[in-house]
Amino acid sequence: MRTGEPLPITNHYFRETNSDMSGVDKTEWVTKTSLDLFKDKKCVIFSVPGPFTPVCSGFQLPQFEKFYNEFKYEYGYDEVFCHSVADFFVMKAWFKEHDIKNVKIFPDGNGDFARLLGMLVNKSIIGYGYRSWRHAILTEPDFTIKRMFAEPMPEDNLDHDPYGESSPNNIIEYLRREKAGEDLKEEWLYPGIVKKGGDRILGGND
Question: How many CB atoms lie within 10 A of CB 39?
């Protein structure tokens, strides 16, 4: 999908507390559409191949949590959402493990949102089935795409997962240049993305 196009309208399933329920489990399934979640707000949506995997856990989720206040207060974004082709329970447990306070869960267990974006890829070579290709989206309040940051050349069963274009560093550099009236180029804006042991990592194993 491209700049100016509307986001897909899809169903997403959350578990929420209902104090009127009896029994030990006082939670129930609540269905929210992507329109419910993103309409009338400026949002950052970033997508990970899988909760609890190395790059998603070591870099993506904690980095977006770290830069949450900058997105919100420097650039006026209302919410930051983490999307994954995973169910609510798995994502909730993952967020709890990393003590995530600000980024919100955007579960896409059926993969409909990723599929309609053109970002659903086959990762059966490592037993994942279908997952989302790494990308991030800036949305407008009218439910359209302001800018998509997708890793290059989505491909089924790739033996590594690039991470650079969709990083928060890259997105913030784009927003900084936009705010300053500087040149907005299509190539990477922030090339030294992920570092581990002093080395650059432009891709990893999830």
Answer: 15
Q: pTM for the full model?
A: 0.89
DSSP one-letter code for 118: T
Between the alpha carbon of residue 172 and those of residues 66, 76, 146, 192, the distances in Å are 12, 12, 14, 14
Active site residues: 56
DSSP classification of residue 142: T
CA distance 156 to 134: 12
Two structure tokens written together for 14: 């959350």
Segment 23-77, tens digit of pLDDT: 778 889 999 999 999 999 999 999 999 999 999 999 999 999 999 999 999 999 9
Please check whether residue 157 is in contact with residue 122, taking contact to mean a CB–CB distance below 8 angstroms: yes
- Across the chain, the runs of DSSP E, i.e. the strands, are 11-17, 27-33, 43-48, 79-84, 104-107, 120-122, 130-132, 135-139, 145-150, 161-162, 194-196, 199-201, 203-204
> CA 1 from chain center: how many Å?
15
**Distance in angstroms (rounded) separating the CA atoms of residues 164 and 7:** 23
Dihedrals φ, ψ of 29, to 5°? -75, 135
How many CA atoms are closer than 13 Å to the CA of 94, on its beta-carbon side? 26
Residue tagged 């578990």 (tokens): 15
Which residue blocks in 6-151 are alpha helix, DSSP H?
34-38, 54-55, 61-66, 68-69, 88-97, 112-117
